[in-house]
Each structure stands twice: as C-alpha cells, then as structure tokens.
Amino acid sequence: MRPSRLDATHDPSLRSWIESANDAATDFPIQNLPFGVFRHDFEERPHIGIAIGDQVLDCLAAARAGCFESLGPVIGDALQSWSLNALFLLGREDARAVRAAASRLLRSDTPEGTLAKAMRETIIVGMDRISMILPAEIGDYTDFYASIFHATNVGRMFRPDAPLLPNYKYVPIGYHGRASSIIASGTTVRRPRGQTKPGEAPPAYGPTHHLDYELEIGAFVCGENALGDTVPVEHAEERIFGLCLLNDWSARDMQAWEYAPLGPFLAKSFATTVSPWVVTLDALEPFRAPAFARPDGDPPPLAYLMDEDDRARGGFAITLEVWLRSAAMRAENAPAVRLSHGSFESMYWTVAQLLTHHSSNGCNMRPGDLLGSGTVSGPEKASRGCLLELTMRGAEPLTLPSGERRAFLADGDEVIFKGWCERKGAVRIGFGECRGEIRAASTAAE
Amino acid sequence: MRPSRLDATHDPSLRSWIESANDAATDFPIQNLPFGVFRHDFEERPHIGIAIGDQVLDCLAAARAGCFESLGPVIGDALQSWSLNALFLLGREDARAVRAAASRLLRSDTPEGTLAKAMRETIIVGMDRISMILPAEIGDYTDFYASIFHATNVGRMFRPDAPLLPNYKYVPIGYHGRASSIIASGTTVRRPRGQTKPGEAPPAYGPTHHLDYELEIGAFVCGENALGDTVPVEHAEERIFGLCLLNDWSARDMQAWEYAPLGPFLAKSFATTVSPWVVTLDALEPFRAPAFARPDGDPPPLAYLMDEDDRARGGFAITLEVWLRSAAMRAENAPAVRLSHGSFESMYWTVAQLLTHHSSNGCNMRPGDLLGSGTVSGPEKASRGCLLELTMRGAEPLTLPSGERRAFLADGDEVIFKGWCERKGAVRIGFGECRGEIRAASTAAE
Q: What is the gyration radius of the CA atoms in chain B, in angstroms?
C-alpha cells in the first residue's frame, strides 16, 4: 500500500491569516489550496493563483516578491507562467512543494505567514476583483463513461434490449472530445444547431430541442509519457494533478441521430464547461474512499487495471450537486433549485484506471490533457446526473418552483454544479462552482 | 460560381532554376510549392520550408535575407516562426501571396529568380540534408468517414443486416481523434497493446493481432471562427489551407471490442501519420472535379451543406496508392508492392462540407486543426483503402511477392502512401510520401 500522504498541510487545526478561509462553510480553507488562473480587468497577462477563502494568492506576484524562492528557479518560473501547463509538466512532487509552501505562507502561526501578511496588498487579491480563465491549455480532452448507473440508464433508453453492453465491465469506455470548445465557468453557452430526425420526419438542421447538461468530474494530467509507453496503474495517480467540476453539455436529439457508428460528435463539441479551481489530489487525500464495490458476479478488472491499493483507496468521497435557475426564477429573485445530488464514490472505474487504460495502447498523455469522468449518476433517482436520466428522455418533466416545467434546458436557464468533501476529523474542502447559462441559438438562416 | 483561381503560378510553361523541379516525374514542380517544416541535424529550431524538386526553399533563411520583404512584416514574421500555425492563422489570402512570391523567387525567368539563384547557398537546402517534422501544432484532430464505399464495406462486416446506417447520406459522420499521437512520416509505429475479445474467450490485454492502415487525406484548417459561429459552406474552402496524406493506423480487434457505444478510441489513438508537405488548395486548383455524383434516389445534402459551386467543383482528382514492403522484402532488396489504388473523387462529402458540418453546431475551428477524410475507398476492390476491406477482415489474405501472406500488418512491414494529380494541360503535382514502419509491441508484462 502506498504511504499515506497526510501531512502538515492537512492538519485540521490550521488557521489562516485570511479570515474568510477560517469560515466552516468556505470551499477554500487553508487545507485545500487549489490552483487556478486569473486575469485582472486592466491587464491581458494571466496570473496563476491559489484560492484561499474569498481571496486569491497571486502566485505571479508572490514569486516575484520572493515568497517561493526556497523552491528554486524552475518552480519559480512555472509559477510565473501564463497557465498551469508548466507546473503540470513538473509533476505532482513539485506541486506538493508549492502547496506546502503556500500553506506556510497563508498560516497564521508561521514566520512565512507573518512576512506574507505584511505583503498582503501585493500578493493577495479578492475573488470579486478578478476573472477566472481556463486553468490550462488543454491539448487533448477525453470523456469517459465511468458510471455504470449512467451507462445503464442511458442504455435502457437507446437499447432497451441491451442496456449495458458486454464490454462495459471490462473496458473503461471513453471517447476523444473536442478541446477547442472547452470554456471557463461563467461563459454563456449558445444553444447549438444541428441535424436531428424527429420520428418519421426527414432530417432537418436547426436549434436543438433536447439540450442537456452532464455532471462530471474532470482530471488534469501532469507529467508526460513518450508515445509507445504505458502508465502502470500503480503509478497513474502521480500523473493526475487534480480534479475539477465539468459540464459536458449535450444535445440529445442531435446525439441520437449522429452517434452511430462512430460515437458522439457535434452533440457534444459545441461547449464543455470546467470549474476554474483545480483541487489537487493531495488536498483530497483525507477524502479517499474504497473504489466502487463491484457486485457479486462482476468480473475483476483485467490485470493491467488491477491494483490492490487502488481498490482499497482509489475512490474519492466527493459530494456533487446540480442546481438550476431559470430566467423566470431570476426575474422573481428566487434562488436556484437543486435538481440532483450524488457522490463520485459511485463510479465503476477509478481516476487512476481511466488514465492507465487511456495510455494502455501507448498513447502519450501530455501535461494539461483533461479527462472527463462521464456523467456521475448513482443508484438512486435523486442522484441522476443529467436531465436525460432525470426526466426519462423528457417523458417525465420536472416542475420548477416557478411552476415552469423542464424536460430539457430552456434558453436563460443557468446550470450550477457544486462539489465538496467533508468527513469527521477533517476540514471540509470544496470545488467552487461550475456555472453556465444558456443563450438562444443564433438567428443565422437555417 | 466562385471565380477560377488559376493564375500565373499554375502556368504549365513555368520552369525553375532548380533543375530537379523541371523533371516531369517530380511531385514538387514549381506549380506545386507545398509548405512544410524541417529541422537541420545541427539545430533544434524548426524552419518553414517550401518543397521544390528535390530541394527546399528555406523560408526562415529567405525571409531573413529579405526575399519576402514585399509581403510586409506580419507575413515575414509568420514565415520565420516554428510551425505553420502563424501562417494558418493569417489565412488563405496571405498564403496565396507567399506562394506567388515563392513562385517568382524560384522561376528561371524573373528578376527575383535571378537574385534568389545568387543566394542559393543561403536559402536552398537539399531534402537529403534535413528532417521533416509535423507541419503544425495540431490543436484538435477530427476524423471523418466520408467514403460511402468504405462505410458500406465495413458496415457489412460489423452489421450484415444494416451495412449503411440511415444517417449516412445526411450526416458527414465523424469523430474526435487524438492530437497528441499524430506523428510525422517516417516515424516508426509501435504495435499497440489493448483489450480484445476473440470469439467466446474472455477479454484479454495484449498486442493487437489485427493491425491495419487507413488511407486518408488530411486537411489543415486555417483562419478561425469564434465559438458559437458557423462556417457557411460557400466560405468553407477559404478555411482549408491545404491537404496532406494521412494514415489512420487502426487495431481492428481492439476496435471491434471497444467501439460500442461511444466509437473508436484506443484502436486509433496510438498513432496517426501525416505526410510532411501541405499541398495548398491553390496548387490543387487545376485538379478540381465535380463532387461525387450521388446515385439516383439518394437525398440531396441539407441546405446548410448545399452549395451549387461545391457540387460542380468541390472535389479534387487526387490519385492515391498504398504500397507495402515487408522486412523479408527489404532483406531481399525487393521493391515495395502496390496494394491498392484509388481516387479522392470517390468521396461522398467534399472537404468544404466536412468543415461546414463540423462548425454547424458553433464549434470553433482553429488554425492548425486537422480533419481526416476517412478511409478513401472506391467502388472497385482494387481501390479499397485498408486491409480490413482488402482481405475481408482477414478472411482473404493477400500474398506478397515474397510469398508471405498478409491478413493484417506484421512487424517490420513498411506502409507507404503516395498521392498525386495529373491532367492534360496541367503539370503533374504530388504529395510526396506518407510512410511508417511497424515495430514490435513493447515487452512490458501483460
């Protein structure tokens, strides 16, 4: 078994001199310290930042001010670059060193903290004064299908006779996604147009009528393997920098018409939203959980995907929620309504298994590559991670507090994902939000 | 109808002061002038080059020497960059200006040519003295399925009851591919490992036994459209910089087991080879052809994919060949053997239609994105563009001149694609070669 990575940064008694970080409800206590990239309104140049309470440690400014000098010039340069890719290239070990240094800088009881507090005006910025952008240049984006509940629910709708295909319990099913259309949380999403074929009518091109979200976890890859080399499952977690929330927006009517035989394409590639803060696997260490317990009769993973340690603690206990707020609800000043809640523990494959499978053919995984988990759905109806499942392909529409009904998303709907971890004896940490509002399709001629 | 783009650069009477460019058999006469990126052995920095006979115009050196000064500093900077992405960003019009300037520089009867010839030692380098690398940083790679003959042949093997799915004649079917594993011609390809399920046996992980090539044309995207904007079909060709040869290596046994329901994944992502020279659509202008004539009864393309001009001249008459040379043939000094020959004219969808469809949901297409056509197969058996089709999934193995039999590729096999255009009244132009040799799977424990 791998050694526990619990260290001084996880100590529940740590307090920060940033007061908002000590609030029990914050997603970003000093035990979290996720990485992101932000911009000031007045400046084009992006800065790497670390979230702390409702503030951000400006790593560019802090590195320039010498706060990370003890980590050496290579890490210092990476912290001053325009995206997290350089830090991703350096890998987990160096990222651990940065996180540990940031912890000392932000603690209320360290000499580094005392010095940093004195530089507060230079190295700390309020979240309300910056815009978060994508944390990395994403070379390749891959989306998996790792919830057996989601696969079974969706399969039942499209293939009632064979909901779960014979390969599912052996192959971590995935497909290549589109990297160019990955957007930061808060970016509006235009309703896409595409080909659909409603019933017996001939195919037509127009705005989708079945626009959906998919609640997912994203994993950013760090380090690299040469083309032709594989990543053994026992080393795979060292190639995952951290996790975020991910909304794999989907146009179900387009998907149904286009997906055979080569899989989803334009039904997905119009937009994918990620939350801005990458929560490191190190921060998630206190929230490890056993991998999903395969029911009796399910085959064990093949040897290349099998790691006893991974079965014992390869899961992460992340609570996930989907919230929706329609334009009418906003107009009435009504709050968003929760549509579902589930846990990342329900996934059939661990994040390590996804990465190992991806590289098992020798595919080179590069720093900044993004893996989507696939829709996180659990066994209960309340934990279904997309409208397709929640409304049974629109047959059982939801009723919102405003009285509106939703089979799929309407223009003006805002979808908000939340995710967090809590456990007795540990300080709660969170992912922040992954948010997107639907705007109407363009008025281009059809 | 769009104006003909035939201009002085296509004049069949043009001769170059590079003698090898005047050889009737060269792929790279002065009427071609494709773009690529090369490296000297002694230098890390890549140079943009333009092929001419068996020589290359070193655009970095030529720009530094002032040869492109008349085109202005923006184009000059792009020609001195490390890849073609900057030129792709500028777009077709600027690329036309570069090609026209290169034509004048390399002609034997212009003042520019006289000056350039005097600088020959500085601005010209022999192909035998350089290594070609990937022409661009490829952001996203998409592979289509645009040959109805390929789709029908393959469909018949996997779905005898429904070889061609109902969406095929409406939707230019495609899927997102893997960008990281795209490699330059000449790079060896390691036989991948993966999950397969032979017959009734349980699934197992090991080297593929059904390794195949796929003969394709690649198209490099230039310019950009914002996320949410579409590219009308009548403007689509202005977003295609040029074409290359592309080998979409495929592991058929892995593909058969993994592809449902989300499409091909690890069966493809271990390697994709592209030829190094990007032949511009401008150079291909004399070889335009009508789009594929849909048989009576086939539906016309939907309006967003319909352009009269595209039907009239959206095809390109490119002859394509696949050659193979086994290790035994190399040992005997035997030449490669031709396995198939076909034409890009047989494609059901034009390159313009592929790009327009791809952006029809608002997907942003970035400079350097690569579109694969899908396997180019024609109606005759001799024009089938992969072994899966040629050998009927291995049931009818080929016999090589060496006496060896091939159902699929063996270690040591070298696969060579060739492509060229010829037509009465025009000078023949070619694509060069797309070449890759199979090396054995790694010896990592299974």
A: 22
Token representation of residue B155: 């469909």
- Per-position DSSP letters for A396-407, written without gaps between them: S-EE-TTS-EES
Chain segment A50-96, per-residue pLDDT in tens: 999 999 999 999 999 999 999 999 999 999 999 999 999 999 999 99
Task: Return the number of CB contacts < 8 Å for A and B.
Answer: 206
CA A193 centroid distance within chain: 26
Active-site positions of A read 150
Q: Do A262 and B263 touch (CB under 8 A)?
A: yes
3-state secondary structure of A389: helix
Distance CA B42, CA B60 (A): 16
Q: In the beta sheet, which residues pair with residue A289? A: A315
Tally: H helices and E strands in chain B: 12, 26
CA-based max dimension of chain B: 73
**Residue A67 contacts residue A57 (beta carbons within 8 Å):** no
Render pLDDT for A116-141 as a digit per residue (tens, 0 to 9).
999 999 999 999 999 999 999 999 99
pLDDT (mean) for B82-90: 98
Q: Using a CB–CB cutoff of 8 Å, tell me whether A201 touches chain B.
A: no
- Examine the residue annotation and report whether B210 is marked as an active-site residue of this protein: no
Torsion of CA B4, B9, B12, B16, to 10 degrees: -170
Cross-chain CB nearest to A175 (options B139, B175, B205) = B175
Q: How many residues does chain B have?
A: 446
A392 DSSP assignment: T
Residue B199: which region, alpha, beta or left (left: phi > 0; alpha: psi -120 to 50)? left
The yes/no answer to whether this complex scores an ipTM above 0.90 is yes
Q: How many residues does chain A have?
A: 446
